[in-house]
Structure formats: C-alpha cells, structure tokens
Design a protein that fits this description.
By secondary structure, the chain is of the alpha/beta class. Helix content is 46%, strand content 11%. Helix 6 packs across helix 11 (263-274) and helix 12 packs across helix 13 (303-315).
Length: 331
C-alpha cells in the first residue's frame, strides 16, 4: 500500500490490473482503515481513469457471490443514484414493465441512499425475501421474468470499506461502481448516471466490453429519463440528445416525479403506477425508460415500437402481473 500511495501521490495512474489487484487486497481485509482512507482520498483529489474504474469493477466481480444466469438474455436496469432528486422508484417500475414485456430482468439494487425508498425497500414492502440463493433467483426469473439481487448480500468484500466510507461522509468511486457490478453479469444494461462526467467515464469502460448497453443522463441532473428536459443517451450504436417531444411525450415538472418522504408513501405511489392508476407524467416517465431498455435489447426495433411495447405492458397490467408472480413465489 505504501508503494502504491507514493506512486499515486506522484500523479501516476494505475493500470487496470494494478487497480484490480489493489481493490482485491482491500476487499480481503489486508489493509487498515487509515490506509484505505488514504487510497480513497487520492480519487477525491483527481479524476478516476477508465482503466482504473474497470479494474475496480473487475475486483468486485471477482470477490462477489456469483450468480450464473448465462442461459438467459438478461438486462439490468439500475442507476448510480446520487442525483438527490427524490423521485419515485422509476428504475424498479421500469424493470417490471420490461418483465411484463417478456424480457428477462436481473435487477441489481440496494436500500435508498439519495431517496427515501430504494429498490430493496420497495420490494421488501411487498414481501419479497432478499436472498443470494441462486436456485431461488433462477426460479424467479424462469416464472416471473425477473429476479432481484440485493447488493450487500452479493458483495461481502464491501464490508471492509463500509466503516471508512461512513466516516469520510463524501462520495468516493464506490458511489459509481454499483451499476457495474451486478454479480449475474447481465448481457444488457440500462444505466442511469448523475452527471455527464460519469456518463463519459462509463461509456469509456462499457465500449471495451461485450455488453449491450445504454447510458442515460437528463441534462438537468437526473440519473434517469425524467422527461423534465432534454436527456443524453449513449449506446453501442449511438450518442444523441433527445427531448420529451422526440418521444411524442409532454415535458414533466420536478413535482410530477416526487417519490414520497417515507417507504409507505413511496409504496403507495409505486402501487398506483404499476396498477395503471398513475398520472400521465408518472406513466410516461416509466414508459420512456422501459422503451430505451427495450431499444438496448432490440437494436432493430424502432423507438416508437419500443414505446408501444412498454405502454402495452403497463396498461394491460402485465407489469403488475410480473410483480404479483414474483411475490407469490416468496411463499
């Protein structure tokens, strides 16, 4: 660690393999909290490079509890969080709309950090049992088209850095690693990010992979398609800025996306939307994110066609059916 810190303090960068080796050692508990804090502080003083981020991702995937879902053409729908907008559970609703459209979804998530209610909170509210049992997850994706991977159960190595992150009380590179380390290694990913800088960093990493991906960022700061303004969308095939009008949808206001102040309030909003009783703006936001997810999976389909598929899944209650089936499987 001393050699690495001196190397980094002299304005050098780590190779992908060096970054991986360092984080594997940290994850295995080989360093003290002060050493880990010093290492993390380097990346508060300068930007992380794509090869360093890729190495850190490789390390966490090596250390995780693996889930083999390779026979399925899965997609994950996950955002970095951190936009501090307290929106309703857009990515989770999007995941169920995709499942209702007969897409296999391996959703990676956690408890809420920048909002009152994260994916794990909402699913536990419905009675979902968080688990890293592979047979359980495979049964869910088989029968409900969706399974849920609660991040802390799959990344025991993160316990080594948890006290340091808590004491530092600032964003570190771990805040952007979450969407990149789904232990089932999905073949497709729809990822929301909280800044254009992170978006470009992600793109540099993902374009070197064999994953079909789409990274979205709303230019006014949301880590998802919020329809509150223009949004940028980068995929394997394109890099474009779109407006709500390009999707033939009305522009939303921030208040239209309010997620509630408690888990109970968030669950009521979630329940209304997935049951088909959401507001026009709530429905449109979910549909637009699901459409981009479908476009990620099916490059040959038009965006208009993907929007129609997403609408049908939500309004025919197929998305609700996927949720009910998933919860039924818990008993």
């Amino acid at each position: 660690m001393k050699e690495t810190l001196n190397y980094l303090f002299n304005h050098n960068i780590l190779s992908r393999e060096e970054a991986k080796k360092m984080l594997v050692s940290i994850g295995k508990g080989q360093y003290s909290d002060s050493e880990i804090a010093s290492f993390l502080t380097v990346y508060l003083m300068r930007k992380i490079t794509p090869q360093e981020l890729a190495g850190f991702r490789d390390a966490l995937l090596e250390l995780c509890v693996p889930v083999n879902l390779s026979e399925y053409n899965t997609i994950d729908v996950c955002g970095t969080g951190g936009d501090e907008k307290n929106t309703f559970n857009i990515s989770t609703l999007t995941a169920f709309v995709l499942a209702g459209a007969n897409v296999k979804v391996a959703k990676h998530g956690n408890y809420g950090v920048s909002s009152a209610c994260g994916s794990s909170n909402i699913l536990e509210h419905y009675g979902y049992k968080l688990s890293n049992n592979v047979d359980k997850l495979r049964n869910e994706i088989d029968k409900a088209n969706i399974c849920y991977l609660h991040a802390p159960l799959f990344h025991p190595a993160m316990k080594s850095v948890a006290p340091v992150r808590k004491s530092l009380k600032v964003k570190t590179f771990f805040n952007i690693l979450g969407p990149m380390v789904n232990p089932s290694r999905p073949k497709n990913q729809l990822i929301g990010v909280f800044s254009e800088e992170v978006m470009n960093l992600y793109n540099d990493v993902y374009k070197e992979s064999d994953i079909r991906y789409c990274i979205v960022y709303c230019l006014n700061g949301y880590d998802e398609i919020s329809l509150t303004g223009d949004f940028r969308c980068i995929s394997n095939d394109s890099d474009e800025i779109l407006s709500p009008g390009d999707l033939n949808l009305k522009q939303a206001a921030h208040n239209d996306l309010f997620g509630g102040n408690t888990v109970e309030e968030a669950a009521n909003i979630f329940d209304n939307i997935i049951s088909g009783n959401g507001s026009e703006f709530q429905n449109n936001v979910v549909i637009s994110n699901a459409a981009i997810g479908l476009k990620c999976l099916y490059a040959d389909k038009s965006l208009e066609n993907c929007l129609d598929i997403a609408k049908e899944s939500l309004f025919s209650k197929k998305a609700l059916g996927a949720l009910k089936k998933l919860i039924d499987l818990q008993s």
